[in-house]
Amino acid sequence: MALNTAMPVLIVDDYSTMLRIIRNLLKQIGFEDVDEASDGSQALGKMREKSYGLVISDWNMEPMTGIELLREVRGDEALQRTPFIMVTAESKTENVILAKKAGVNNYIVKPFNAATLKTKIESVFGA
Length: 127
Fold this sequence. Notes:
Residues 8-125 form the Response regulatory domain. InterPro entries: CheY-like_superfamily (IPR011006), Sig_transdc_resp-reg_receiver (IPR001789), ST_Response_Regulator (IPR052048). Keywords: Phosphoprotein. This protein is an alpha/beta fold. It has one domain (9-89, 102-112): 3-Layer(aba) Sandwich (Rossmann fold), CATH 3.40.50.2300. The chain is 44% helix and 17% strand. It contains five helices and five strands, in the order βαβαβαβαβα. It has a five-stranded parallel β-sheet, sandwiched between helices.
């Protein structure tokens, strides 16, 4: 199965430079329909307005963190099936376990490149 690069993707990070980096990496892979949110609550609002094929969210944000966003998404019947990739600068085992328990589909540790991002996305979709 080929990766559907036409699906809308929501990237969530409170650091505008990171949003730009992830957007550029997605573009290299072939994704064009990319929206941004600067924290979990803004992301949740956007997800309730538009159906996303994938969410890529940073872990450390204020006021709503990535893990809180993930829990909200998994607890919302309309959103719970949305594929979700968590991005973090920390590779602590307990964080990976916490994210897995919360229902994350995949996990990326910064820094990463387009090839790593593509591999992680493909593994989520079984491509």
